[in-house]
Amino acid sequence: MNWYNESPEIKLRLQHPLMQRVAELKERNYADADKFDYAPTDFADAMDNYDKVLEIVGDICENTIAPNSEGVDKTGPKCQDGRVTYAPGTAQNLQICNQAGLSAVEMPRRLGGLNLPVTVFCAISEMVSRADAGFQNVWGLQSCAGTIYEFGTEEQRQKFIPRICAGQTMSMDLTEPDAGSDLQNVMLKATFDEQENCWRLNGVKRFITNGDSDIHLVLARSEEGTHDGRGLSMFIYDKRDGGVNVRRIEDKMGIHGSPTCELVFSNAKAELCGSRKLGLIKYVMSLMNSARLGIATQSVGISDAAWHEALSYAQERQQFGKPIIQMPAVSEMISRIKAKLEANRSLLYETAVSVDIYKALEDIARERTLTPEERQECKRYSRIADALTPLSKGMSSEYANQNAYDCIQVHGGSGFMRDYLCERLYRDARITSIYEGTTQLQVVAAIRYVTTHVYTQLVQDILQQPVADELSAFVPRINAMTELLEKSIELVSEAKDQEYLDFHARRLVEMAANSVMSALLLRDASRNPELLRNSLSIYVDYAEAETIRNSAFIEKSSVEAAKAYSC
Description:
By secondary structure, this protein is α+β, with helices and mostly antiparallel strands. Helix content is 59%, strand content 11%. The model has no long low-confidence stretch (mean pLDDT 96).
């Protein structure tokens, strides 16, 4: 038994039309083959390498992380004398992942990583999240090494990244008691110690995931007298230097394996990462985009677990002389869970591929000048990634919550009991639409791509790609959804009222997401109709209904009527 080998839907997404380009860029035309005997020599070799890694992950997730998850949820981490001890299952998970070389997998081989594309990382993260969403937070934060790689000095890369690749943990210390979504209010103080030639950090951080990690990325105020984002810088803190204690672990609703900490910095030694004053403006924005993609994968993993649990229970549970899967009301719920899951998957991997291409080109640009064609390619996929990331995080997390809800409903009264996995999935799912930027903040990030018609153009581009003959009837239906979207954009824009646009922003973003995910799922289903035909049909039915509902609300509303919702 192996989760990866049993997941043809994941394998299909790794056969993305642009995957060859991703591997070519990530592998620098396979130049590492001359330096590392385990580096691929061509595209086929690269894909075989990815498969082998994912098979290892599939085995670990099914046979170690998932069996440990119940105990981890009940035990959780402990805090004593300012230090955190993981639950025994979490410690075992980390040990096995580290032994398998699954730490900071995206980092280059020269620094101890596996040089895997973001797209492959998403497949790993999805399976880890299906096994235990809380553990994904502990393991997945090792991807913060990318911030050190991208913005740190070569000395910092050599100092920290090999340690992370060897299994040391990371955290990103951003939030404070008075600075949640509005990070401009961060006040943790950074002062330069002339005598020791280092920076010192003083203050409190709150809601820090994996807060007693080995290596921290810390957002702090380095510019005396400032009160906005221009006074913030990014710092690297090494736990071995001391000066940071865990005041407490938060008592959370879910993801119990992941310690969420309140930290006290007392003259903690740190070093500047990148340039001063760019901590929030540049580095946190990059870090958050990566984190949001991570939450999208976590959400997809939770949805996958919800689908498997609902399906398994409905096939076994007998009522009125037959399995409840045979009851239309139940089978509809399970089919809808699956359809939303597959729509999210298509969006997730499209986002990941776009990130892979532009990130690889940016990395190449540090070594040589890009050609005009490469610069254009980098710009194009950077824009697509920026547009799709909030859409993916927002919609995947919302669907994860909906799917976990429906999974409990399939279980009936049993689903309310802690004896069943679906109860934990429901608790774990809830945070996904809150942390790393609430759904409302994802709407704020996405709305400009709605009003500038980026999503509409993306849908048209996707629909220009080959479609299986048997699925061609979906093309006009998806086009009709985008037409309703465009009509709604026009109606809202005509008012020339920012508050009115803000009022309808979520409806417009959801309409755009419905069209984009429908088009992407159609493209993926065209490569394997037997695998995804049913999910495509169900999702387009759902997306049409939602689009019509939102469109009707917008059409009947007015600026004056919208004011009734003001509190």
